[in-house]
């Protein structure tokens, strides 16, 4: 393999969205709600909301704006329709303040010594920049679905990353905890690394599906650095 | 001023293009050429080549591709029409390997503690990523004309930076050594910082024009960090 750049899924792969969103929901909405259930319910609206954009039912809409729209529905569902706008705005920013998994910063820092490293996330640029500041993620640059006007797993996202990095796709490795993302990247010629994140959906969730077709399978980003000699 | 992000011109403002290009021209073309004159002549083609894109005479063309086209003309002009393609390709990469001015990394590192910092350059994304790796520039993200399909000083570049950073333009400060860049940024509502780089065009060049309309005028990025309390 002649890999020169690594691009990373972010939600679930680099950061722990469930704990972070639950923490902010608990802080901002009070002890009366089940914060983990709130985080799970919000996240369940993630793929359907992007799919409306992917199918052309909505024009391009940033992830912050999709999060905002699904939050409004969710607050009604949780019996909190009177939540003030200022609190809603803060809740949307919960997704900007997610903590990295314990191995993420150490692994990325090592990988950056040898490879170009970039996010390749459905999060918008401002979200990803805030998250990197918050968690100390040492991206060489932020790549986002927003730059391409398409959400993963649309092929335009993977093709766009190769175009902006000015590398043939086989010199780029997509790193993700989700098989559908890796399969879509492979279909566009990228190398793939599967990272096992059994904690992503909480302790009660079944273990995530693994990816037998990935070039590399690891349990952490430090293990990925070991594997890639970084 | 309620500035939250700083965006930076790169060629001349952050890195010393003249010494870097001359060094690579000397290394790759041999002692027979006047390497500084070669660098100056290549740079003189920079604005006219982008202007062809800005006027719509050329479709969007990356800076690497503009550099490649002007290099071919230049080698003929310098009596080196037989320069092999491999050497031409290496010469184009000279622009990816420019060294920062002595204060750049220290100043950016301090500014990044308090502000979002990003390039806002006519260089393409891959060029800016390589340059950041080469020189240790700690960008939070790379913003490039390439993302907007427009070259500075087109307004789309400054507007696009504000859109991707999701900030009102008055919360963004453009930092540059060139008055035309700052004036264009101001016209789109950004704050501006002028940085005096008398060495940019070499010891024989007249001192650069300063900018009486800038919010801040400094002689280095460390002085900018002092001024902005970072």
- The name of the CATH superfamily of the largest domain in chain A reads HAD superfamily/HAD-like
Describe the main β-sheet of chain A briefly.
Answer: 6 strands, parallel
Q: Which pair of chains has the greatest number of interface residues, and how are they split between the two chains?
A: A-B, 21 and 21 residues
Spatial gap, N to C terminus of chain A: 14 Å
As an assembly, this protein is homodimer
Briefly characterize the structure.
Chain A is α/β, with parallel strands linked by helices and 230 residues long.
Question: What would you say this structure looks like, in words?
Answer:
The structure is a homodimer. The first copy, chain A, is of the alpha/beta class and about 230 residues long. The first copy, chain A, folds into two domains: about 5-15 and about 100-225, Rossmann fold, CATH 3.40.50.1000; about 15-95, Putative phosphatase, domain 2 (DNA polymerase, domain 1, Orthogonal Bundle). Chain A has ten helices and six strands, in the order βααααααβαβαβαββα. Chain A has a six-stranded parallel β-sheet with strand order 3-2-1-4-5-6, with helices on both faces. In chain A, strand 2 (about 115-120), helix 7 and strand 3 (about 140-145) form a beta-alpha-beta unit. In chain A, helix 4 (about 65-75) crosses helix 5. Chain A is globular, with a radius of gyration of 17 Å. The interface of A and B includes residues 116 and 147 of A.
């Amino acid at each position: 393999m002649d890999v020169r750049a690594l691009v990373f899924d972010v939600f679930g792969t680099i950061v722990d969205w469930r704990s972070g969103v639950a923490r902010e929901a608990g802080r901002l909405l009070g002890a009366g709600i089940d914060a983990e259930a709130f985080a799970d319910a919000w996240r369940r609206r993630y793929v359907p909301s992007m799919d409306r954009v992917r199918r052309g039912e909505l024009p391009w809409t940033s992830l912050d704006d999709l999060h905002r729209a699904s939050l409004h529905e969710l607050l009604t569902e949780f019996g909190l329709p009177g939540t003030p706008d200022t609190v809603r705005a803060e809740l949307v920013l919960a997704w900007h303040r997610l903590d990295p998994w314990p191995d993420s910063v150490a692994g990325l820092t090592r990988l950056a010594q040898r490879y170009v490293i970039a996010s390749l996330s459905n999060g918008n640029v401002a979200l990803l920049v805030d998250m990197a500041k918050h968690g100390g993620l040492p991206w060489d640059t932020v790549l986002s679905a927003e730059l391409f006007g398409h959400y993963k797993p649309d092929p335009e996202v993977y093709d766009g990353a190769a175009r902006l990095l000015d590398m043939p796709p086989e010199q780029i490795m997509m790193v993700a905890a989700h098989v559908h993302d890796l399969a879509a990247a492979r279909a566009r010629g990228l190398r793939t690394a599967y990272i096992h994140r059994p904690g992503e959906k909480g302790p009660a969730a079944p273990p995530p599906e693994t990816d037998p077709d990935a070039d590399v399978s690891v349990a952490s980003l430090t293990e990925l650095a070991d594997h890639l000699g970084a």
